[in-house]
From TrEMBL:
Lineage summary: Bacteria, Bacillati, Actinomycetota, Actinomycetes, Pseudonocardiales
Keywords of this entry: Signal
Record keyword Signal present: yes
Coiled-coil region list: none
Pfam families: Lactamase_B_3
Tagged with keyword Glycoprotein: no
Protein's UniProt name: L-ascorbate metabolism protein UlaG, beta-lactamase superfamily
Metallo-beta-lactamase domain residues: 42-265
Signal peptide per UniProt: 1-29
Species the sequence originates in: Amycolatopsis xylanica
Amino acid sequence: MNEKISRRGLFGVSAGAAAVLAGAQAATAAPRNTGFSLRWWGNNSWEIRLGEKRVLIDPWLTRFKTGTYSPQGADPETPLEVNKKLIDRYVDSGELRADHILVTHGHYDHLTDVPYLAKKTGATVLGTETHLSLMKALGAPEDQLAVASGGEYLAFEGYTIRVLRSLHSAVGPRAQVPFPGSRTLSCRDVPRRIKDLVEGGTLSYQVSGGGLSVLNFGGSNYVESELAGLRPDVLLMPAGGAKVVGYASRLLTTLGNPAYVLPTHWDDFDYPLDEPGRDYGGLTPLREAVAQASPSSRFVVVDHLQTFTP
Ligand SMILES: [Zn+2]
């Protein structure tokens, strides 16, 4: 399969079909896909389709300008914005639905759209106490919020969700978490600027259903011991990790060299979702690190709004 998949390729021959063509042995070894696919909505926004069910991770469609990947970095005073018209277009047309929304951490490029999307879709939202506190203050319906701390393994109709303790990307010379901090559920301060959306702990999620499983990280770091024994078919792996010892090799070895590695969080989100993703500079190093650490894994770049079927 090409590293960059065309729309036609994605909707035409799936990787599962290719395995069948390769021989009966490959076909029996491959997990049977019963309605599992992934659609990328930019940054770390993924829609997991499991038959009729939909699970969203960090859905962020608005992508207001922050200068995050400019030499100056993000301006902390950037006001938060939600493009309701854009979100309405996708939700009202039925293109975007959600039974669950999973939040990895509190930052603006992950959490900002979730309160409005929760209201629009009626989805249950998982996150830490800080994430829920931020979303409640931004107008998320309180009775749709469910707190998680990592370690939960939950069953729903048609899929399971495994919540894992995780770590945020380590950035800059001090290997620092940008906009660190936490807040309690009772805090009512309304976040108005990107600096108000504090990290609040980081979770990762494995979602399984339709015979397959996908593991997502919202930042380029992880807690290795949390991942012992996990064998996801698809790993959604963030670009970055330069400050993390053996970022790719430790992760891929611990996970038993997943069949598919899809890069995530690699596009410059100062540019809109309806244009092809623009690499901020992390995609090539990630591709090389994965090729070296796990040559048997297929590195598949899925572009904005494209769908991948394992
Ligand atoms: Zn972040």
